[in-house]
Amino acid sequence: MDKLGYSRETQKLIYAIMNDISNSFTGQDAGKKAYSLDLEETKKQLKQRFLEVYDMQPLKSPITFFSKYLEKNKDKTVGEIEKELKETFIKSLQSTLIENKTFSLALNTLTQNQANDLVKWLLETCIYYDVPLKMDVENLADQYTKAYHYVCLKNKICCICGKEHGVLHHYDNVARVGGYKFDDGRVLRVMCLCDEHHNEVHAIGTHDFSQKYHVVGIYLDDRQIRELKKIHKGHFQAFKEDKWNI
What we know:
This protein is mainly α. The protein contains 9 helices and 2 strands. The protein starts with 7 loop residues before the first helix and ends in a 15-residue tail after the last helix.
């Protein structure tokens, strides 16, 4: 299991994106401080939506889990188990919140991987709803580009021209993994292209296409692969989901 705790910079980024999503939905300019009530409602809805697509693996019986831990360590002093006791309590508390379709964003309640996935998903949401962001976009450029490509794949929109009914294209040659039958989605970069640009990339080659349009495709995580398998039939045939150690 990953260690609980993520960076304050990531937390600030999460709050900044949530703030601008709230502003977008209420007609406020990006970067302004969102109205408190609207922001709280936005956070609530975003957390619920995130939990629908991301399995945070809460404890099945958090209260029982914590009680058993206390029983097991009843002969030890608080000083002896202070760190472990704190982590066990946090896990139990977070699991209880998740059971109620929410979760804490406190620095010691998420792993860095969980926080990174939340940022990724929030950026995907911004692109899908055309939410303007007022922040240091330079630091977000790579994440934003990846989120853009994923939204294009999910909605079958060409990442070059924006045409609908796009198809999934492997930027990296599928022969590298032995063909489509052995592609699990984790090794090769992908993008979404319309018929015109799909034909073009095969006609001029990947290198020239990349030089012309400045695109290289993206690597996918398990959540994205799982979602795209339903949309782009026949792809990622070798995908077998691992149990998440969250």
